[in-house]
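Figure 3 (text version): C-alpha cells given as input.
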C-alpha cells in the first residue's frame, strides 16, 4: 500500500492542497527546491508543449504553483481544470509530499546547494515583504527586521544550520532531503532528475533529452527558436511573461533572473570552508548523489 504523502507547511505553502487533485494523462509536475531552476524548467516545458516562443499566457498562469497560499486552492484547481494543453504544474514540495500518479511525469531539478543558497540570499532582497504578507493574510511585524549579514557570513551560517529538513526546506538539510528522496526514486519510470549545471552547459542537448523523455516530438526547424527562448538573457528580457509571481511581490522582475551562473557559492569560500561544507553534505545525503550533484561535466 502506498503511504500517504507527508504534509509540508510554511507561512505561504501547504502541500495538503495536492490531496484530491484530479490528475490527467500526461500531466507534468515540476518539483524543485527554491532557486534551483524552477522557473527555468517551467519555461522549458512551456516551450516544448506549445512549440513556440510566443506563449499564450504568462508562466504563472500556464504553470500555476499549486500549493502556494497566495492563490486560493479552488482558483488554482479551476485554472488547471480549464486548461486544454498538456499541463505542467509547479511545486516546491518534495516528492514524498505529492501524490505519485502513474499518469503523470515528475521532474526534479537539482542545483549545487551552495549556488542555491547564494540565489536565496539575493532573492530575499527582491521580495516586497509588505505585499507578500498582504497576499497571504499575515500581520505586519511589530518591530523592524534585523539587518541581514553580508552574503559570505550568511552562507557560512546556512551551511552549519542544524534544523529539521521537513520544517525548513530551504536549509541545507532541507535541500538534501528533497534531492535524496528524488534520487532514491530515480529509476521509477515517471521520475526524472535534471541537473541545473547540465542545462547550463548544453541547453539544447538537455531540452532534446527532456522532450524525448516526455514523448514530445519537435520539428527540427523549430528547435533553434525554442532553445534561444529558454536562455537566461531571453527570459530576463521577457520577464513579464516568465515571472512566476503575481505583480507586486517582486521589487524588480528582471532581477529575479539575476545571473543563473554556477560556482557563485564556491567562490565565496576558502578551501577549508569548502571542505567543511563537503563534510557536512556527506552527513546529509548519499555519496553517489553528492558525486553527481557536485559534478562539473555532463554529457
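Below: residues designed for each position.
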Amino acid at each position: 500500500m502506498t503511504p500517504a504523502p507527508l504534509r509540508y507547511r510554511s507561512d505561504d505553502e501547504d502541500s495538503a492542497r495536492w490531496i484530491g487533485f484530479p490528475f490527467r494523462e500526461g500531466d507534468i509536475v515540476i518539483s524543485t527546491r527554491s532557486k534551483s531552476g524552477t522557473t527555468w524548467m517551467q519555461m522549458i516545458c512551456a516551450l516544448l508543449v506549445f512549440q513556440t516562443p510566443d506563449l499564450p499566457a504568462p508562466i504563472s498562469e500556464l504553470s500555476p504553483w499549486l500549493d502556494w497560499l497566495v492563490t486560493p486552492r479552488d482558483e488554482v484547481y479551476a485554472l488547471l481544470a480549464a486548461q486544454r494543453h498538456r499541463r505542467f504544474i509547479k511545486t516546491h514540495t518534495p516528492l514524498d509530499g505529492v501524490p505519485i500518479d502513474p499518469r503523470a511525469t515528475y521532474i526534479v531539478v537539482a542545483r549545487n546547494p551552495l549556488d542555491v543558497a547564494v540565489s536565496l540570499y539575493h532573492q530575499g532582497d527582491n521580495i516586497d515583504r509588505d505585499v507578500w504578507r498582504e497576499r497571504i493574510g499575515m500581520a505586519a511585524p511589530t518591530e523592524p527586521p534585523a539587518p541581514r549579514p553580508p552574503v559570505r557570513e550568511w552562507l557560512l551560517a546556512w551551511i552549519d544550520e542544524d534544523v529539521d529538513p521537513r520544517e525548513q526546506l530551504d536549509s541545507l538539510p532541507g535541500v538534501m532531503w528533497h534531492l535524496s528522496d528524488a534520487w532514491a526514486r530515480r529509476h521509477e519510470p515517471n521520475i526524472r532528475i535534471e541537473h541545473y549545471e547540465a542545462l547550463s552547459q548544453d541547453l539544447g542537448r538537455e531540452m532534446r533529452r527532456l522532450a524525448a523523455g516526455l514523448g514530445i516530438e519537435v520539428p527540427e526547424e523549430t528547435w533553434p527558436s525554442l532553445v534561444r527562448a529558454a536562455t537566461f538573457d531571453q527570459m530576463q528580457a521577457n520577464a513579464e511573461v516568465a515571472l512566476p509571481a503575481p505583480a507586486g511581490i517582486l521589487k524588480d522582475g528582471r532581477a529575479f533572473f539575476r545571473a543563473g551562473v554556477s560556482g557563485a557559492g564556491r567562490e565565496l569560500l576558502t578551501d577549508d570552508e569548502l571542505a567543511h561544507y563537503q563534510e557536512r553534505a556527506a552527513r546529509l545525503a548519499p555519496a553517489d548523489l553528492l558525486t553527481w550533484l557536485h559534478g562539473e561535466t555532463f554529457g
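The mean pLDDT is 89.
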